[in-house]
What does this fold into?
Amino acid sequence: MIDFIKQIINGLQIGSIYALIAIGYTMVYGIVKLINFAHGDIIMVGSYISLVSIPQFISLGLPVWLCIVVSVAFCIVLGVLIELIAYRPLRSAPRLCSLITAIGMSLFLQNLFMLIFTPNFRPFPQVFDVEPLKISEVQVPFNTMLTIVVSVALMIALNLFVKLTKTGKAMRAVSEDEGASRLMGINVNRTISVTFAIGSALAAVGSVFYSNAYPLVEPTLGSMLGLKAFVAAVLGGIGIIPGAMLGGIVMGLAESLTKAYISSQLADAVVFGILIVVLLVKPSGILGKNIREKV
Amino acid sequence: MVNKDVRNATLINFAAVALMFGVLMLLRTTKVINNYYSGILVVVCINVILAVSLNLTTGCLGQIALGHAGFMSIGGYTAGLFYKAMQSAGLEGYHIFAAGLLLGGLLAAVSGVIIGIPALRLRGDYLAIITLGFGEIIRVLIENLKFTGGAQGLRGIPRLSTLPVAFIVCVISVTLLTTLMRSRHGRAILAIRENDIASEACGVHNTYYRTLAFTIAAFFAGIAGGLYAHYIGILGAQNFGFMRSVEIIIIVVLGGLGSFTGSIVAAVLLTILPELLRGFADYRMLAYSAALIVLMIFKPSGLFGTYEFSLVRAIRYWMAVFRKERDPFARFKRKARAAQGKEC
It folds into this structure.
């Protein structure tokens, strides 16, 4: 029983990281209908940036967790730049073209970081050095608790942001109908940039948590993680923010339970299997609405 | 009753391919093409088959598929395992190799039907995701099954994919796919791409043709996989990951969606280019990805758009130029007008 609870907590931890990253995919897809394959590599960049900045903070005598701030700032700039350079010129081109550009961008980032940091694995230092929490017999590492709490808090904040603020309203409007929202005086380009910025910021936060949980950093770390987070976004219903959270947590739980009770190698197959079943039964995802095709 | 024009065109094309084959063989025997070059050319042939077959689903049918490497791996493992099984039964040779290739193609086609029937209910990006999912599942299964050699890979497949073999298989595959697209079935597939609701209304069985195109693409991917298995000698599941599918789709998009000529040219370029750039080893992938982004931004329709090269048309054009006709295209225009008149 204790083992089962432990697995659930593990699942929640990795699930909330997936959810954080999935939000970036889902927001971008919702607004520009593009599978942003470079998003996974923004996570990798975030990890490397915090890895580089940690020694600086130590030498300055500042707390190590400040690396999150640097990482978030850098990733925001990077995400907005990628949109500006690679995706904006192709916004009216066929969808497959922007997809290929996104893949090209992802390859570019991977190879750039392979050049700068070599393809070797690098250890990631422990950022949060606090005693594990003890609830009766189950020990919960502080890192795990923090990941879950911060992720949930960020997601609630994001949901409120999209629901209540003017920018959030603009985002929803652009994702519904770009042309109409432009006619209503919404600055579409700026709204899309903000979307990329938020997605990249959440990815950077996710990257620090992920590197803390799996403390090895390498240039291709983002590709599988990104793929899984994307699957999570589709699972919950792509374009829907609460769907990304739900999808991420379902994926995390499924993965950690499969690893514990079935087979650690088959975890990926199970994850993709769930995706296929969901897509076949309800193609719009768990929380998605069915839109009828009009002739 | 074969049309005279069609018969002539077939003869001309056949002669051209035979000539190319002859030149290649001559260069090979005179060692102008050494073992290294010949290896690259085999990979070119394999990539041509993969790209042209994927172009059938992505270009002609208009559905993004990101799991082509999965079908390739099914074909590769089938061909490899079949040959090894026959070898232990004392049978060897090129007829076994050919049978293995066909068997690999058929098994890939069967899995294409199994995956295609449910998956093709989805459109666009969702189809891309679901094919990606299937591709990954196939990879994970291969990695964890006993008889495929697991993570260690399948070893000891004899290297029978020499240049002439690969060239002939490649020519046959491209010919079959081109003739398919020129046929009634090909036109039905194009009609679905242009407007699936209209084509359904015109009596095209959409589901049937979607599955057909997907299955045929899977079949040829399987054949290419078999060739690859007999070229590389050792198969590992990591050869058939998501990136492999991406490589193929990059070739297709770069060449031009719906243009088999473009796929062939892009496959040749994109296979040879990284080899030429080996001198810059470290920067090669960086340059490659940057070139991809730049090309997509400035020429989103790919190198060739939907243009198809036709040898017969080129010959007629140049003959007209030599005869100093004022408008070298006049003959085609006359012909087209005549054909239209007949239809009316």
